[in-house]
Amino acid sequence: MSSCEYYDEEEGEYSSTWVDEFCDNYGDWFVRVPDEFIEDGFNLYGLDSIENIQDFHAIVHYLTCNDPSDYDDIDYEDVLKVYCLIHARYIMSPAGIDDMIDKYEKGCFGVCPRLECNQQNVIPFGVSSKLDQGQIYVYCPCCKDIYYPSNNDMKDFDGAAYGPSFAPFFESILLSEHFQIEECRNIKMNLMGFDVHPSSFRRLDRENNN
Known about the structure:
Helices cover about 35% and strands about 10% of the residues. The chain has seven helices and seven strands, in the order E-E-H-H-H-H-H-E-E-E-H-E-E-H. It is elongated and about 70 Å long.
């Protein structure tokens, strides 16, 4: 039995919601937003005015229902967009922060690709809190740079699921909780004891591309 499934006594079988099934597949990168958070209208204030999202309130009910056959006409892409926006709000809550700390500690989001960052765990990042502005990226709290995630599947998800505010906010939480984040060391390249100027690498790139 999946950890996200529950037993329906009336139907006599195990069932799960859309959120459960989604987190079964993408739970490393997305936390499971509790039904209570989704069903609280205060948490969703303003989201019903999103452009190009049809039947917002029906989608909200669909996220937590255990009988998806009642919503055969629901558009999956719209469901995913709504969940991304709700997810972005939840991870800024105390409970959401705790969930994200757990994932960060486990290295669910990968590590910085820079050698000098010494396998520093990265934080998910989105360029905008609005939909359709870019994919999910990752932010390294060591070198303070932005990278494509090592998991190629994440390019298919909207960066609004995290937005631009979460990474710096989460970094401040990590620092306040005394997580070890070492300052990035700048490595100077040298050849036979002589420093190599950065322009040399650019010249090599141009030659290799020709």
